[in-house]
Amino acid sequence: MDDETATPREIHLLTVDALLADLVGGRAVALGGGEELALASDDARAVLDWYRRNRGRWQSNLSAGDTDAIIDAIGTPPPTIEAEPEAGNAHAVRLLRLVKVEAHRFAGLHAYGRPNVPPTSFVFEPRKPVLLLEGGNGSGKTSIANAIIWCLTGHLIRSQRPPEEGPLDFACEIARDDGTNTTHAMSAITPLPPKSAELPPGGEPIPADNWVELTFADAIGALLPPLRRTQGRTARGKITETAPDLDAVGIDPIAWRIATTMPALLPFLSVGSASQLGEAVARLTGLAELVDLARHAQKMSVRVTKTATPEIEKQRVDIAGRYQQAVGDLTAIVVETPTIAFGGTAPTVDEENSADRITEIAGHFADLKAKALSEARDVLGDGFDPESKQSRDDLEGSIAPAIERLRTVGELPSIARLSALKVDAAEIATVVALLMRVEAEAATLAQLAVRSRSSPPRPALR
Prior knowledge:
InterPro entries: P-loop_NTPase, Rad50/SbcC_AAA. The protein is an alpha+beta fold. The protein is 42% helix and 12% strand. Residues 1-5 have low confidence and may be disordered.
């Protein structure tokens, strides 16, 4: 904890944001009964901080990008986060009134029509504070309620089973006018097409083109932004669904479930076991989002253990092999050129502080390079500028060919002839004596030349 004298805050008094801020910041949270929750590991706090910054991922499917991001978070220092103020238990109550329901190709409210010619949109505008729907079986009472519930929650109410999600396909078998039967995948909210409908060939899904839009008014009658949920299919036939922006009307998503799917779950409660209703009620505390976090984290743990860890180990072995090969190449170069040797030995890939040691060795060669470039100017003249990248690149590009030429200098004809010459000591002495004699005679000639220039000319003979 940041302050060892501080009293851990009670978990039931914290919002999710405040709870995560305390745990990531290294502060304990009181669970009741004298128990406390704290994350002692910096790695755990760093991973939880990733979840804190990516709350939109808690209910999403696992992805390779999320896996890599969480793995990268391990080993990084967790941030310092100040404690958020306690939210307390006071919540403002907001009442909304449904003023309009508009549905497009929704099962129970529409006939299917034709794929490219949908039926007229269903429009229903309640006028009274209390609404009573009356009608015979199959008249559409439940369908109106389901249109509202599906738009708000993505679920459908069923009479003999718990509420189910809307973006689900089921196999629909249609008896055609020609006497054949075809089977198609069809969305649960798509109206059942007649046998004479212009449908795709057997085995292909029935197009999904469905939406419901709800309009609410606040306590003073001001209309709020419409809420629309849509359903369609991708080019490969997979159902896609776009949820409404519930934040636009300022109501927590759990508020919609209190009067919709939660009552429908009551007949299916099983005492002593987890239930959708129990989870929904838990969300009223404001902390049940952590259930989504825990599920995502648990799935991520399995993925990292079974998939990411073996893949990382494979990469580690490959990197270690390439590193060792580079060390071997460097050692061979140092043996060939001892003047560039560095102190000590190259570290192993898994040696503690190996990164610091590699940085130290790299600095050694950087210093040698800087010194060599400075000395190169003494050889190449003032035209070579060590500070110029182009000059350095030109020099480095010329070094390798020059070294290669020096390695083959012995193959030149002149060098071969010189190498073939064989003389002994007597012959060397004779050559030296001849050279000394030539040198003495040259000196005599030089003296005669000087005298001839200084002597007066002789008279000519007649």
